């Protein structure tokens, strides 16, 4: 694709772009076939001012693709998946901003479960997702993302995130699963200031929450020291923290204080955190 320099770009009319924002900034050029293909590939990376702007840009882009004889199979499939994800979340909501508590989960040993259950794994996965989604929404959380066996929810209150985590572990342990398999979910919780972009979060706070989740074992709830501090005076009866120590987690620049959440009915004994180095033992 020939590079579109500033002079050539300035000569193009607004109609040669899929998106023109309220300040007049023009994005996603669609004046020729190579640029249309590029716009199809980059569409999901563009920050639109609102859903109406996104819809208008999508319509312009698809008309341009038709004009140049381009069949955007991958683009349409991606848009359909995005719409299905929004439908799974329920009515459009505004994610919390500022100081947010993030809860991330994944299923321990999911590959082994797939091998054992085959096509039946889909029903198990949907059952786990339903428990996670319904519990998070019921306790004032917002579902951010569901992908494969991973789940991401955000909360304004750290206490709500902890209540969800404990409730989920109880429900999973009581559920009767196909072929009598054992389903154990890792849960990681961290409170911080992620950057809200469109309908998701980015930033080091998100990476920290993900690394804490990865450090947990199935059936375990791990939190950062930041969540423990934020939840002081807000905890539901019976929920407490057990300090595990300072750990280096992969990809994070500083050690993280890890705490295990304890409550009646939860598993209490676990090996040391996964893929973590105990700073205090060095």
Please give a structural write-up:
There is one protein chain. The protein has helices spanning 6-11, 33-42, 51-67, 73-89, 110-117, 121-138, 158-174, 204-215, 225-230, and strands spanning 17-20, 26-29, 100-107, 142-147, 150-155, 185-192, 195-197, 200-202, 221-224, 240-249, 256-262, 276-278. It is 39% helix and 23% strand. Strand 7 and strand 8 form a beta hairpin. With 282 residues, it is of the alpha+beta class. The chain is elongated, with a radius of gyration of 23 Å. The protein has 2 domains: 6-85, no CATH class; 93-281, Nucleotide cyclase, GGDEF domain (Alpha-Beta Plaits, 2-Layer Sandwich). The mean pLDDT is 88. The protein is built from 9 helices and 12 strands. The chain has an 8-stranded mixed β-sheet, with helices on both faces.
Q: SSE layout and pairings?
A:
Blueprint: H1 6-11, E1 17-20, E2 26-29, H2 33-42, H3 51-67, H4 73-89, E3 100-107, H5 110-117, H6 121-138, E4 142-147, E5 150-155, H7 158-174, E6 185-192, E7 195-197, E8 200-202, H8 204-215, E9 221-224, H9 225-230, E10 240-249, E11 256-262, E12 276-278
Parallel strand pairs: 6-9
Antiparallel strand pairs: 1-2, 3-5, 3-6, 4-5, 7-8, 9-11, 10-11, 10-12
Task: Offer a few descriptive terms.
282 residues, 8-stranded mixed β-sheet, 2 domains, two-stranded antiparallel sheet, 23% strand, alpha+beta, 12 strands, Alpha-Beta Plaits, 39% helix
Helix-strand topology string: HEEHHHEHHEEHEEEHEHEEE
Structural class determined from secondary elements: alpha+beta
- pLDDT averaged over residues: 88
Q: What is the CATH first-level class name of the largest domain?
A: Alpha Beta
- What percentage of residues falls in helices of 4 or more residues? 25-40%
Q: What is the CATH fold-level name of the largest domain?
A: Alpha-Beta Plaits
- Beta-strand proportion: 15-25%
Number of domains: 2
Envelope shape: elongated
Number of discrete helical segments: 9
From the structure provided, what is the oligomeric state, counting identical versus distinct chains?
single chain
Topology, number of strands: 12
